[in-house]
Fold Protein PRRC1-like isoform X2.
Amino acid sequence: MSKADQLLSKLPPPTQLPSFVTDALKEPSSRSTQQADPVLNTTDMTSQSFHTPMFSPVITHKNEENFDVPTSPSSESGTDKSVKSEQTSGNKGDLFNWMRGSSSSIFSMVAEKAKNSVDAVLTTLDPQMKDAFNPNTFDGTDVVVASEKEIIVSAVREGFQKVFGKSVVRGLEAPDQPFAAQLVGFSAASKATKYRIDSVRLHVVKGPVVAFERFIVEPIESKWYEFGLLKLNDMERNIDLEVYTQSVPVPTSIVSLINDDTPKDYEHISTGFSIPVAHFMASNLKVHPSEWQEIMTGVSQRSSLLAASVSLAMSYKNALE
């Protein structure tokens, strides 16, 4: 026998290994029950009393404003937040309402300015369009001018609008009148304007009618002047008014030429001459027949007619009162 065998023969035999599985199975069940986690003990859980969780809405229904909700620290903080949010939304609503109101006023101002601009352009292109934009007038009546010449109608319109504010003035052409082409004397001018008014009265029954005529007169020997006569008649109110424009000197030589060129058998020779003064004056001054007054006096025909129209409108206003 070798030394190795001798050493191995001296070792004791192996002992039996312990079985941990069987030991665990042999442990009493009561011990496991007693040492179990109390959180997992269903008996203890069911024996304890808990409050049933309730949902507390932040925003309540309109019909449930007085509904009592259990308060708690979390619900109180939620209520505070809801109040703040309602205040914030209220402030935003006021801001939006203000912006909406201001924007509407701004839009209305812009629309009004645009309308005024369009009206100004239209009235510049066609002065008679003023009547369409200003439908109201004094006493609800229109002023009719017995002529369709724009220089006469526009001057009368502007004069009446300066006195009455808004007034409707329109032109209506009168038929040919049985008077001389160039009227001479106050009486001839008055008869010619009355004839124009009476002719327009066939179509216009109510309201004032205005007529205009130019004439020359010799107040002093060898001193001739041209005037313009504005006559107003309101048959309904029994008002008759006459206003004269500024005088314009006429050279005696021009009047002599007109007199010489008028036929002796001229049918209207009792009221004047057959050739207007403006024809010779415009030919000599090389201007339009409506501009010779301005060359002679520095005042245009329309300016003098406008001044007379304002005076006539003021006289009519005083007569109405």
